[in-house]
Amino acid sequence: MLALRGRRGEDLARLGAMMEALAAAQDRLARLSEERMREQERALGSRLDAAAERSQASAAAIQQRLSVIDAARQNIEALGSQVGSLAAVLGNKQARGALGEVQLRDLVSDRLPPSGFAWQHTLSNGTRCDCLIRLPFPPGPIAVDSKFPLEAWAALQDAPDAAARVAATRRFTADIRKHVADISQKYLIPGETAEGALMFLPSEAVHATLHAAHPDLVAEAARRGVHIVGPSSLWAVLNTMRGLLRDARLQDEARRIRHEVEALAEDTARLERRIGALRGHFANMQQDVRDIEITAEKIIRRSEAIRALDIPEVTVARAAE
């Protein structure tokens, strides 16, 4: 009985120790769980903060892109109004001519000196060209026309079908031939202008279409002395003309220098002749001086001889009476 009670006491003591160990383990587990929960809360908070910052940055980028899109929309609307204004300008013959003349003035004024061109120059036949480039002979002054029949080209671009395109093409080529004929008759004057004139197209699109789709028409115009140029090709032509004007100016300066050298040579020869005459006068003067010196020496010798004579003073006084 006593042994049984002893074993039960030991079991109770062992059970108490186990319960204490279990309680301590539960406390440690609770602390670990709390620490992990706090770490997870801190990590979740940092992630939420980062996500909020990214959301704010994305919202700012979206707002910036919306601002850019709005500015682009405004630019497109302004460009549309400008295109409409340009279409209105190109639809008016006078306004279109003024636009071509403005482009022509900008190009010519930028590449040529003021003495190398004249605006609205009147030729001897009474016609007036938009610009006359004053090149020396050869080739001579070149007239430039900036008016171009654009209605046919616009009709060609807006043709809805093949039949309308064929009709617009015929009108386009006929207008160009007529304009080329007018330039050839008005601006090509033998002895006054060069054998060729320039027809300036203020649109690169029209120039490219004309050369690509109608090369025979361009060649025909060249045979009649009319060369069709656009803004880019006119720039190259003006650069060549600038070189010709520079060479002509250098030749004028060389002729002027040669004239001055010839005049200097004449003045030098005239100076040599005058120096020779002065040298002759100086030689004559030296001879005259030597003759005067000889006469003076003779006078001095005679006066000394007279002093050497012993003549009484009475005789001298009688001679004086």
From TrEMBL:
Q: Which UniProt keywords apply?
A: Coiled coil, DNA recombination
Coiled coil, from the record: 15-42, 247-274
UniProt KW tRNA processing keyword? no
Task: Report any Pfam family annotated for this entry.
Answer: RmuC
Q: What does this protein do, in the record's words?
A: Involved in DNA recombination.
Family designation: Belongs to the RmuC family.
This protein is called DNA recombination protein RmuC homolog
Cite the source lineage.
Answer: Bacteria, Pseudomonadati, Pseudomonadota, Alphaproteobacteria, Acetobacterales
